[in-house]
Amino acid sequence: MNWQHTAYAYPMVFAAVVAGVLSAYAVQFVRRRGRNPTVVSFAVLTAAVAFWTATTAVKLFLVDPGAKLLAYKLLHVGAMTAAPTFFVFALAYTDRRELLDRHVVASLYVVPAVFLAVLFVNPLELGYTGWELSTVDGVAVLSVADGPVSVFGLVYGFVLLFLGLGIIGQYALELDRPYRTQATLLIVGMLVPSVVAALELTHTPPLAGGVNLIPASLAVPSVTFGIAVYRYKLLDILPLAYATAGAHSADGLVVLDADGVVVHVNDHVRPLLGTGDPLLGRPASEALPNYGDLDDDLDGEHSSCDVLVEGERYVELTRIPLDRAGDPLGWVVSVRDVTPRKHYELALESRNDELEVLNRIVRHDIRNDMQLVTAYIDIVLEHEPLSDEARSQLETALRRALNTVDLTDVLGQLMRATNDDERRRHLDVGATLREAVEDVREGHPNATFAVADLPSATVSANDLLDSVFVNVLKNAVVHSDRDEPSVAVSAAADDGRVTVRIADDGPGISDEQKSVVFGKGAKGLESPGTGTGLYLVETIVTNFGGTVHIEDNEPRGSVFVIELPLAAVEAADRPDSVD
């Protein structure tokens, strides 16, 4: 087979090499990070360009007419594949995924498939009407007269090409640098061969006749696409998708690159932040107020914070990391006006503070008054001669007064139990449980308490843990139907939890009452349970991350089971640690 040398083939060889490298890079990208319509269509597009330019270069190097004609037919495999693939790439790049149905995409390749079949067989000269070998500048070139199907195929390819350019061009206007530059590189790269093709096909000087330079002009998009991929992260980030979403969102959207620099904002950001200063190109720490609060909370997931921006207006900043297959690409920060919600939260917080103060004052006054009432009743009971009926009535009044004092204690403990600011520390369950038993034993000398060996189990809690045990122990004694109640106390630590069991020999609790005894499903102190003490028990245990339930005791009575998560204690904090 004879070969000839020509400089016209060098741009085509260059374009083939660059396009081949880009296609291989895209294929490797898919293997590492998974399939993506943009990357897959880019890989097919660059592969088609590489095949197109490589076979055109081979056609130029060949001298034999038959071989040149075969190469001419083969190069159209790449040429006719490139146009619909570029259109698919434009749809994927601009996030028009709803149009990327496999049936729609397949239909785009029907015309190229028919064209290629007709070109290779050439029935009734529908593909080409003739061909001839001529010499241009000492180079043997093949000139082919297009048939009607070839003309239709060329028009079809141009239509898809310009549709793709129009789609990208429309969205390029919505982008900020560097992404506008990225889209511009794609447009310029495809415009150059489009213009050359128009001049070639219309026989417009200086490209009238001679060597077909359309494949040679593909060196330009090969270079611009390469710059877009390697310099402007064409395959790593889809800014057009972000711009599209941002344009239709009422929230402000800020896109940051991996260095935390603002690279894109939508139109809502500056009004929400109350600033007219430019944000693009600035570090997020300078462009966004209180951005450091997001850094403090960031743990690989999204984080948010509320910011006072002007007057009494608040916005919420939410930062969401952008990554692909574990590789960080940047962040999206949403800016949302939350002024009504924040004002409500502040008003609620203020009201809670006022209620807390009022609660303390009322409880203080009630306790003082009740202590005075109980003191006078005690004096009357001890020093005044009373009838049996009067003494019974005064003793009833004394019990009610003492119950009122206990109620104020419970209310105070409930306020503390629901206060997230109540400081917690590491407490030993065994030691706390023993102290609670001693406290209840002093107030109820008629009761018997059997305490098993208690483990040294540490939990994260506060002083309210003692209230839990005291209330359950008192409940076991007060609601017993025996003159001398018996209570058994045990505990065990296993599987990251400590389980406390307080068993009594009282009348027991029916299965129906077990589900409501803690006031579950009822409104606080109005619950149909056995009293405010058990409602308090469940509230405190739940806030500590634990659970409480009731089991039947044998042969009679109930067992209150309290489970609490063990705290992670550093070695230096353990009693048996050695320095």
Automatic annotation (TrEMBL):
It comes from the Archaea. Keywords: ATP-binding, Kinase, Membrane, Nucleotide-binding, Transferase, Transmembrane, Transmembrane helix, Two-component regulatory system. GO terms for biological process: osmosensory signaling via phosphorelay pathway. Pfam families: HATPase_c (PF02518), HisKA_7TM (PF16927), PAS_4 (PF08448). It catalyses: ATP + protein L-histidine = ADP + protein N-phospho-L-histidine. Its EC number is 2.7.13.3. Its main location: membrane. GO terms for molecular function: ATP binding; phosphorelay response regulator activity; protein histidine kinase activity; protein kinase activator activity. SMART domains: HATPase_c. It is a multi-pass membrane protein. This is histidine kinase. It comes from Haloferax gibbonsii (strain ATCC 33959 / DSM 4427 / JCM 8863 / NBRC 102184 / NCIMB 2188 / Ma 2.38).
